[in-house]
Design goal:
The complex is a heterodimer of chains A (403) and B (509). Chain A is of the alpha/beta class and 403 residues long. Among the domains of chain A are: 87-159, Dna Ligase, domain 1 (2-Layer Sandwich), CATH 3.30.1490; 197-350, 2-Layer Sandwich (Nucleotidyltransferase, domain 5). Chain A is 34% helix and 29% strand. Chain A has helices spanning 51-69, 105-115, 164-175, 187-195, 198-203, 235-246, 250-260, 289-311, 336-344, 360-363, 369-384, 392-395; strands spanning 6-12, 16-24, 30-39, 43-44, 47-48, 75-80, 86-95, 124-136, 139-142, 152-163, 180-186, 205-210, 215-221, 224-231, 273-275, 286-288, 324-327, 348-350, 357-358. In chain A, the strands form 5 sheets. Chain A has a 6-stranded mixed beta sheet, with helices on both faces. The two termini of chain A are 28 Å apart. The relative contact order of chain A is 0.16. Residues 386-401 of chain A have low confidence and may be disordered. Chain B has 509 residues and is of the alpha/beta class. Chain B has 3 domains: 14-208, 3-Layer(aba) Sandwich (Rossmann fold); 212-350 and 360-473, 60s Ribosomal Protein L30, Chain: A (2-Layer Sandwich), CATH 3.30.1330.20; 474-509, no CATH class. In chain B, α1 (26-39) packs across α6. The longest helix of chain B is centred in the middle third of the chain and has 24 residues, at 185-208. The radius of gyration of chain B is 24 Å and the shape is globular. Chain B starts with 19 loop residues before the first strand and ends in a 6-residue tail after the last helix. Classes of the chains: A alpha/beta (403), B alpha/beta (509). The interface between A and B is large, with 58 and 60 residues. The structure holds adenosine-5'-triphosphate (ATP), guanosine-5'-diphosphate and magnesium ion (MG) (2 copies). Residues 26-28, 31-32, 77, 110, 112-116, 139, 141-142, 145, 149, 172, 189, 192-193, 473 of chain B line the site of guanosine-5'-diphosphate (GDP).
Chain lengths: 403, 509
């Protein structure tokens, strides 16, 4: 098997590290060969806070993936998340020289460079520069301007950036293992690659990846990314709220949440309780179901409301025909789709990776959407530019294949 | 030493109920008290006493006493026990009133801070003066809280041991083992609260619900009095067919039991079994037989059962004992503190002899003296001596006093005293808190509509009060629990790491 047919996605999540080994088939499909996992420590809100510990966990997950897939991992595509990630849309334009009117690759490249000539905060670095549409002499919605005739080329980009040192932390964590970093990818962008089909991107959709530490989102209209970002709130907050509200340890709050929790209110019998089973020596606390669900509901509602507020700064959410797709571990909370419908007033559903073959159990778990999505992303990139390698891309990159 | 009383009496008549009051002193004390309330304990009055009004306001206790109204102005002690002591002194009358009619007073306090360490001994003294029997439940700070807290705690502990009838002492460091390694401080404290609450409830049950077996009060006190050693504690519960065995097994596995090993060395162990109406005597006998295998022949078991309808099918076992700490240096002799002079007169005089006896549903031969253990327990009598008037202590105390100037109380306390409650959480890893929602758009964005003003992260009036309680814990830089190391998620001036239900003022129980 040629080595560049193999792709590895690595998500250093707040609650788990996930390594997915995939193979790009000649027929264009992708097959998952193995999934490695390790509980994550030293990561908070999607960012590495304890370098040594996080590195150990990554090493563990990589070893697990190598064992499961029976392959040696040399290089990976890494997801980066965290509330420091921001985005905006911008347009770049170039005028063709008078003696030429056929648009070539250099013009496209120049338009992009011009789109990026905006100031982002000094400590930030560009993570993605994703093409939305081209305009040739004012004509809208051009998908590929190469070879077209015109005087003026304009290009709309969705630009994602984040704090440089934090992105570098993630890269360093992997490189010290040592593994080669093929690319760093915003987690929601990765998730969207497998949660949404091209058709759904075209019709417009919002992907919400609610993980352990962050809620990442990305919104597509007309097949192009229009809005994206991350909020530093996730399942950890729900667990922490439960722990404080019910006065139980975090570990038990976590178990209670995943085993019994729901965001739906008014669904319990009056006085219905859950009895906490326990092995640490303290037992038998009875917890009212409605109380548990209220704590969860309030946190998820608040997070969605916050997200809605961010999205409402622009008008794109009114153009998503396919509705909302919720993924990530928290999407497993019963009723979360209805709560989202309630708040966004748009149809919502829970989603996981759709378009892969191989280990079914892996892609049916929404917690793996990001890592699997990284493979899909890798595949798209490798198809576009099988030759390009090296870290130069990490600092400035141009990814025509990704939308 | 177990006597079965087969005339199994179900819950006693109203007039047999002993008036017990539980008072939580300081931040940790009131948190423990909240826990006791939440866990549901009847037949006793619960009082929160604190210098910090914000913490007091959020307490769920039925009665509250603000300590040192004019001295601390509701702002807490900033970790200064002198101030805590003075505050309790100022409010002595209110404390006295709150404790009136109690024949048994339980004091809960976290030692190491200002209020708990300074005021609890004063509260104990007031209770003793009123003729009540006093048992203190105290926690000692985590090592990571620093030397100063630890030495303040040791000093307060020594003082409590002198004034009270017994101190049940929990070392946070050892309770910390209960929580997963590196678990947040919230979790560790919550576990500590739970442990203390369970032991308070068990002992109350032991006294209030003699049930099939009865415990002498003096034995109870002797079992609790460990001479400054560590407290063995275990709690277990089960509702299976094999519940007696399982509950005991669980109790023995509690980290504070040192996996049952230490039990053999204990001279007295309190055993309290609670169960629903279906609990049978044979179950209790099975349990006792099994327990006997873990103790030495000399160990005296003090045993009580309680039938509690709320238990349903569950059966619970609580084991409590105090070990004498062989290698423990006799707790630091109290030094040169104003309170010494207050305490001294109260301590030597045997506490209100008549009161304890009628309190007890007791085996006759045990009901005699309050401190029968004195001879066999030199540690205790030594402690008692420390409380004798100042002159007796001064020769030994002298060297300690010499060390003092360097860390004179005022100087020690200075850095921690906060004139006002800090409006924002302290010590962030990065100087600027990130503010999320108004997404900053770069100037060239096509639909850029002009500069947006970032709302200054201003504390919202409504949310502040709810957060306040957390901030009382934020004395230590490590109290953000799960989010300790991460940047706070601040949106429109709200710290979103604080539970939503707290900020939205939704009551959960
Ligand atoms: N069945 C379940 N019900 C509710 N929540 C769940 C369930 N299973 C997992 N979770 C929660 O999902 C979260 C983990 O999700 P996920 O694995 O997507 O996050 P992550 O990728 O590790 O973190 P992040 O992307 O935020 O850095 C945890 O908070 C976990 O409690
Ligand atoms: N069990 C428990 N202990 C606490 C809690 N908060 C603080 N502590 C411990 O109690 C000690 C005193 O703190 P605190 O009661 O807040 O200080 P005070 O109010 O000035 O007495 C600290 O050093 C901690 O070891 C809590 O919520 N629960
Ligand atoms: Mg994730
Ligand atoms: Mg995420």
């Amino acid at each position: 098997m040629a080595s560049n047919d193999l792709m590895v996605g690595l998500e250093i999540g707040t609650s788990k590290i996930c390594v997915v080994v995939g193979e790009s088939r000649t027929d264009g499909t992708t097959k998952i060969l193995g999934v490695g996992q390790a509980p994550s420590r030293g990561v908070r809100k999607g960012e590495i806070v304890d370098f040594e510990t996080a590195m150990q966990c990554v090493a563990e997950a990589v070893a697990d993936a190598e064992q499961k897939s029976d392959l040696m991992i040399k290089s990976v595509y890494v997801g980066v998340g965290g509330a420091h990630i921001q985005s905006f849309n911008n347009r770049g334009s170039v005028l063709l020289p008078d003696d030429r009117d056929e648009i070539d690759e250099q013009d496209v490249e120049d338009a992009k460079i011009s789109a990026r000539e905006v100031s982002i905060p000094a400590q930030n670095a560009f993570l993605h520069c994703i093409i939305q549409h081209y305009h040739v002499d004012g004509q809208d919605g051009v998908l590929n301007p190469l070879g077209m005739l015109g005087q003026k080329l304009e290009a709309d980009y969705h630009i994602i950036h984040g704090v440089r040192t934090r992105i570098q932390n993630t890269i360093r964590c992997v490189k010290e293992l040592p593994l080669e970093v093929e690319d760093v990818v915003f987690t929601a962008l990765a998730s969207a690659q497998v949660v949404l089909s091209q058709q759904q991107k075209n019709l417009g959709a919002l992907v919400i990846d609610m993980g352990g530490g962050t809620t990442d989102y990305i919104l597509y209209v007309d097949g192009a990314v229009k809005q994206s970002g991350a909020i530093g709130i996730g399942g950890d907050h729900i667990t922490n709220d439960i722990s404080m509200g019910l006065r139980i340890p975090m570990a038990r709050a976590e178990k209670l949440k995943t085993d019994e929790g729901s965001v739906t209110l008014g669904n319990c019998l009056p006085g219905e309780t859950v009895v906490l089973k326990d092995d640490s020596g303290f037992a038998g606390k009875e917890i009212e179901r409605e109380t548990l669900n209220t704590i969860i509901h309030l946190r998820v509602r608040e997070t969605f409301e916050l997200l809605k507020k961010q999205l409402d700064e622009e008008n794109f959410i009114n153009y998503i025909g396919e509705g909302i797709f919720i993924t990530g571990g928290c999407s497993l909370l019963p009723g979360i789709d209805h709560l989202a419908e309630d708040i966004f007033e748009i149809p919502a559903r829970v989603a996981h990776a759709q378009t892969m073959s191989g280990l079914t159990s892996a892609f049916q778990n929404p917690q793996f959407a990001t890592a699997i999505g990284l493979i899909k992303y890798a595949q798209a990139v490798q198809v576009e530019r099988p030759q390009r390698r090296g870290l130069s891309r990490l600092i400035s990159k141009f990814l025509p294949g990704i939308r | 030493m177990i006597q079965l009383n087969r005339n199994y009496t179900l819950p006693e008549r109203e007039e047999d109920i002993i008036p017990i009051k539980v008072i939580g002193v300081g931040g940790a004390g009131s948190n423990v008290l909240d826990r006791v309330v939440l866990d549901g304990m009847d037949k006793s009055d619960l009082i929160a006493a604190n210098t910090d009004v914000q913490s007091l306001a959020s307490s769920v206790a039925s009665a509250k006493v603000q300590l040192g109204r004019s001295i601390t102005r509701g702002l807490g002690t900033g970790g200064d026990p002198e101030l805590g002591f003075a505050a309790a002194e100022e409010s002595a009358n209110e404390v006295r009133e709150a404790l009136s009619d109690a024949r048994l007073v339980f004091i809960c306090a976290g030692l190491g801070g200002g209020t708990g360490s300074g005021a609890a001994p004063m509260v104990a003294q007031i209770a003793r003066e009123m003729g009540a029997l006093v048992i203190a439940f105290a926690t000692l700070p985590f090592t990571f809280e620093g030397k100063r807290r630890s030495s303040q705690a040791q000093e307060a502990l020594a003082r409590l041991q002198g004034i009270t009838d017994a101190v049940v002492c929990f070392e946070n460091d050892r309770m910390g083992d209960l929580a997963a390694p590196k678990a947040g401080i919230h979790q560790a404290f919550a576990l500590a609260d739970m442990t203390v609450s369970q032991s308070v409830r068990s002992i109350v049950n032991l006294i209030q619900r003699p049930g099939i077996m009865r415990v002498g009060f003096d034995d109870l006190l002797a079992a609790l009095r460990g001479g400054g050693g560590r407290c063995l504690f275990g709690y277990g519960e089960s509702d299976t067919d094999n519940r007696a065995h399982e509950a005991l097994d669980q109790a023995l596995r509690n980290p504070l039991m040192d996996r049952g090993r230490m039990l053999e060395q204990a001279t007295r162990v309190l055993v309290q079994v609670s169960g629903g109406p279906a609990m049978t005597l044979s179950e209790v006998e099975i349990l006792m037989r099994e327990l006997n295998r873990h103790i030495s022949d000399e160990t005296q078991l003090l045993f009580g059962t309680a039938v509690d309808g709320r238990m349903g099918n569950r059966l619970s076992v609580t084991l409590i004992s105090s070990l004498r700490r062989e290698d423990a240096p006799a707790a630091t002799p109290p030094v040169r503190r104003p309170m010494e002079t207050h305490v001294a007169p109260a301590a030597p005089q045997p506490p209100a002899e008549p009161s304890p006896q009628p309190l007890l549903a007791i085996l006759p031969e045990q009901s005699a003296a309050l401190e029968p253990a004195a001879q066999e327990n030199p540690a205790v009598s030594a402690k008692t001596k420390e409380l004798l008037p100042l002159e007796e202590n001064s020769p030994e105390a002298a060297p300690v006093q010499q060390n003092e100037p360097e860390q004179a109380p005022a100087a020690q306390a200075a850095p921690e005293i906060e004139p006002t409650p800090a409006p924002e959480p302290v010590a962030r890893p990065e100087p600027v808190a990130r503010i999320i929602p108004p997404k900053k758009k770069p100037p060239l964005a096509p639909d850029y509509t002009g500069p947006k003003v970032l709302p200054h992260p201003q504390p919202e009036k409504g949310s502040r009060e709810k957060v306040a309680r957390q901030e009382t814990l934020q004395f230590e830089p490590v109290t953000r629990g799960r989010f300790e190391k991460s940047e706070p998620t601040i949106v429109e001036g709200q710290d979103l790491d604080v539970p939503t239900f707290l900020r939205k003022n939704v009551r959960v129980k």
